[in-house]
Design a protein that fits this description.
5-stranded mixed sheet; about 300 residues; alpha/beta; 2 domains; Rossmann fold; 3 helices; Spo0b-associated Gtp-binding Protein, Chain: A
């Protein structure tokens, strides 16, 4: 199952409280304060993983909590730090703090680590508060609370090339020929329900990532069809390959070209600034050559 949008709450651990303690050892006069510091609360950390392609692991999690730090102890012993919680997410994950409305993480590299919720600092024990005037302080510092956020996690696929076009124009066929990707291919609309990625290798040893995105239709930028929820994946591509169907009599390739570009502009005008390669598909069918000539003239 392809999941690319999840909302949940993350809460880092509270710092442990500092201890109030005094030395009571035999033959030690006026022992003084002896309380240790509390441990740091555990943080919640996202780690980029290029082996993951979906946010499925988060689908049923509504809240993720890190452990608290332990309280300080006598003999100036520190409390144990709360263990950090590491969560692996796909490369291309964007994390937004919902209450602030700001992006707090954009994970674009394998093994990149980002602290999403920071654990609270541990409180200082009473040994920190001894002064010439107060030689036996009977107070210590409480640990700080850990950060708590409601976050939205979005996956925006990282690909060099994005394939766009109406349903059933041949996007999946193209990526299956150029790469090792094996998307479902059939002669009906919306065969592709989720983005498919393929690595294309060229003769000089270089390679690039190509994304086959679900077909767009008129009104996709307003939510029509399946394409709207996947338009965000186009945002990170560097080049768009626009596939036109030249073989179906009732389709006008030029109008299809205009409609798809209008939907891209409605979603994000910057998408039209991307280099765009037009691929005319199904050229072996009747009337395809005539349509190609007309398209060139237009």
């Amino acid at each position: 199952m392809f999941i690319d949008d999840v909302t949940l709450v993350v809460k880092a651990g509270k710092g442990g409280d500092g201890a109030v303690s005094f030395r009571h050892e035999k033959f030690v006069e006026k022992g003084g304060p002896y309380g240790g510091d509390g441990g740091k609360g555990g943080s919640i950390i996202f780690v980029g993983d290029e082996g993951l392609t979906t946010l499925l692991d988060f689908q049923y999690q509504k809240r993720i909590t890190a452990p608290n730090g332990e309280n300080g102890m006598t003999k100036n012993c520190f409390g144990k730090d709360g263990k950090d919680v590491y969560l692996r997410v796909p490369v291309g994950t964007v994390v937004t703090d919902i209450s602030l409305g700001v992006v707090i993480a954009d994970i674009t590299r394998h093994n990149q680590e980002v602290v999403i919720a920071k654990g609270g600092k541990g409180g200082r024990g009473n040994s920190h508060f001894a002064t010439p005037r107060i030689s036996a302080p009977e107070f210590a510092e409480q640990g700080e609370p850990g950060e708590e956020r409601e976050i939205r996690i979005e996956l925006k696929i990282l690909a060099d090339v994005g394939l766009v076009g109406f349903p059933s124009v041949g996007k999946s066929t193209l990526i299956s020929v150029l790469s090792a990707a094996r998307p479902k291919i059939a002669n009906y609309p919306f065969t592709t329900l989720v983005p498919n990625l393929g690595v294309v290798r060229v003769k000089d040893g270089r390679s690039f990532v190509m994304a086959d995105l679900p077909g767009l239709i008129e009104g996709a930028s307003q939510g029509a069809g399946l394409g709207f929820q996947f338009l965000k994946h186009i945002e990170r591509t560097r080049v768009l390959v626009h596939i036109l169907d030249m073989g179906v009599e009732e389709r006008d390739p030029y109008q299809d070209y205009l409609i798809i570009n209008q939907e891209l502009e409605n979603y994000n005008p910057k998408l039209l600034l991307r280099p765009q390669i037009i691929v005319c598909n199904k050229m072996d069918l009747p009337a395809a050559e005539e349509k190609l000539q007309r398209l060139r003239e237009q």
